[in-house]
Specification:
With 204 residues, the chain is an alpha/beta fold. The protein is built from six helices and six strands; from the N terminus they run ββααβαβαββαα.
Length: 204
């Protein structure tokens, strides 16, 4: 997709730049998004940074004790996460914010490796159904027990994954996209409740 960006983005140096996750390496809570926003994380170089979805996410993380400030416009603005790490299923901005299956599959190994590095992880918050499904695939690739039939996504849905050697709780949350926040499908109390629950599950 980087070789043929939409006409309105041609000439932008940052188009389709891949992004890593970021946050506290000792995180007990992982937040998984869909993909970087074309003019948010893709532009700034850090996921959820510099866009309205990020404003909603960081605002909630601040209110629930995971972030030291409620906004982030650029990577050097002082934002620090405590007990949380943020990643995504797809690492480049997909056309129309709708990644294809092959894009998910190409990027999934990065999430698999991050899951392996986050040794203190206890809870995972999936922002939207795409992130929920991608997280389940990544966990299964890590050898974590995933029940069948596959747990269904829903806002505030919970799924217990793993076995006696290691377990995680997967939490669902509507994505803080403008489509959801402008229409009231996702409100501040709703997203705050999910992160408060994640905090409790993680023992923070």
């Amino acid at each position: 997709m980087a070789a043929d960006p939409p006409r309105r983005h041609r000439g932008e140096r940052y188009w389709a730049r891949p992004l890593p996750g970021f946050g506290d390496p000792g995180a007990r809570v992982l937040v998984v998004g869909l993909a970087p926003a074309a003019h948010g994380g893709n532009r700034t170089g850090r996921i959820f940074t510099g866009d309205r979805s990020g404003d909603w996410l960081f605002g909630s993380l601040h209110r629930t004790g995971f972030a030291n400030q409620p906004h982030s416009e650029r990577p050097d603005d002082g934002l620090a996460l405590r007990g949380a790490y943020i990643a995504a299923v797809v690492r480049c901005a997909p056309p129309a914010n709708r990644p294809a299956v092959f894009e998910r599959d190409n990027c999934l190994p990065y999430l698999v490796r991050e899951l392996g590095l986050l040794s203190e992880l206890r809870a995972i918050v999936a922002l939207g159904s795409f992130a929920w499904d991608g997280t389940l695939l990544a966990l299964r690739a890590r050898g974590v027990g995933v029940p069948r039939p596959k747990p269904k996504f829903g806002h505030a849905a919970e799924a217990e994954l793993g076995d006696e050697e290691g377990s995680h709780t997967l939490l669902g949350c509507f994505h803080p996209s403008q489509q959801n926040t402008f229409t009231g499908k996702l409100t501040e109390p709703m997203i705050d409740a999910v992160f408060a629950r994640a905090r409790a599950l993680a023992g923070l």
